[in-house]
Every structure is written in structure tokens, then in C-alpha cells.
Protein: LacI family transcriptional regulator
Amino acid sequence: MRQPTLQDVADTAGVHRGTASRALNPATRHLVNADTADRVDRAARSLGYRPNPIARSLKTSRSASIGLVIPDLTNPLFPPIARGVEDVLGEVGYNAWIVNTDNDPAREAAAVESMRVRNVEGFVFATARLEHPLLAELVAAGNPVVLVNRRVTGPEIPSVTSDDATGVGLAVRHLVELGHEKIAHLAGPQDLSTGRGRLRAFRQALEDHGLPDEPARRIICPSWTEAAGAAALTQLLDSDVDFTAVLAGNDMLALGCYDVLAERGLSCPGDLSIVGFNDMPFIDKLSPPLTSVRIPHYELGAEAARLLLTEIQEPGRHPRSVLLPSPW
Structure:
């Protein structure tokens, strides 16, 4: 049985083929009279016509799709960010191709190349390292790129991040108000803006409160994972370092701290206070619930999508970045 074509839809609706095409494309539907667009919709439904997005993208080099590159889909931080991206894109007829890299540069490069072949119109990256050659390459080639939750030190790339410095300062103040003066910090990887920035903010907060900045109380974790957090707290507990509280650089590291406390028969906050960062979904279900600095996950994704759409529609615009508040 022959599949209905766009010309069939146009003939049935009594319009030009170009008008039918614009009416069926969410990005251009506003250019068509509402009654005409509805007539085209009815014709398409009656014929069982389905637009071919691949054919459209080959003809126009526009796919109404973007690539969303995530470092670890098992980290509960990222699904709300992805939801924010998708909701904003959906309002204008765009879709997101979501890929998980497992923090593997080779896997990331292969996924990005695959999406470029499919004519995605831009990228939202949640994987950015401070030095990230692939991002520099994409920007140099004219690809619209927006970073979410992270920044780079290289080319000026639009980004949407939370105010980590204020968030860390509030967390330290909370611990000080509880009476803690010997606070340890489990910092994230220092090749990431989140890891480096939160460590810098922690040291500044100690100075602001007149507390000693002891290097032995700072552990650099190689990854933002539960296992890395457990290893770091184990290192601290097995040393002769004196500390009564831990500010973990993110909630996954804090979960690792909870694991170690449980293994050793210690309690939070009885033996050690733990504060996380990110306010991931479900941390209130822990026992005790984890105190954590909230970042606006959904809003980060939504604003990143808005920035990217602007980059796509106004390619000559000067790069703009957004800093969202981190409420305590």
C-alpha cells in the first residue's frame, strides 16, 4: 500500500505543498492561518500521513532536535535537568537526543559525531571539564553549544550554573551555628568547575568565620561517586585528623559518608555531622535525612534550553551566561 505523501495532504486540504509543510512543522506553524493549519491537520489525519523528520532535516539542514550530553544517568541530579530541557524544547516543537557518556571522552566524542551526522541543531553539555577540547572544536565549527551545571576555562561558551559559592557559604555557616569549628571537606574532581569552585568557596568560608584551613581536612575525590565519598571519609577516619563535621562536595559523596558511618557503627549527627550539596531527589528518605544545599535542577535545564534556542535563532549573538541562586 502506498504511503501518503505531503503532496497528497496538500491536495486534500486544497493548499499549496509549501503551506502544508509549514502547517505540519511546529517551528513554522505560526506562519500559517489557524483555520488553514487545522484543515491541513485534518487532511493529514484522514490520510494517515506522518511527516518524515529525517527527510526534512536532509532537505533543510534543520532537524528540530538538539543533543543533550549527560555524564552519568545513574546520578539523580541529572533527570530533573533533562526534564527542564525537554519541557522547554517541547513548547517549540524541538526534541532532545539524550546520550550518557559515563565520563568517557572517547564515548562522548563518538556520540557527538553521531548526532552531528543526524543534523542536530545544537548541544547542551552537562559533561564540561575545565579543559575540554571537544567543546572548543564544536564552537569553532559554529555549532550552538550551551553548558549546564559546569563551565570551562577555554572559549567563551554560554552556561547556566548555580551560585555554588553562596551555597557553600550557607552550608559552612549552618555547621558553625551548630557549634562546629573543625570542618572537613570532600572536594570533587579539580578538573571540573564544580569541584574546583566549591573547594575554593569552602576555604573562603572558613576564612570568613575565622576558622583554620587545615590541608589535612581537605580530601580531593577523583569522581563524584558514592564510592569516592566512602573512600575519602575512610581516609579521614583512619588518620589522626581531628574533625566533627563534613561538607561533601555533592550528595553522592555524602551518601558514601553515610555508608562508612553505618559500617563503623557511628551515627549522624551524634558522632559526625554530614552536609551534602545538590539536594538530589530522595535524600530526605535517608536516615537521618541528609541536609544538603539545594540547586534548582529543573530550572538549570529549562534555562539552558532557552539559551540554546537563542543561540540557534541568533547565531551572531554575544555569548550570555546565567547564574541561578542556590537557596539553602
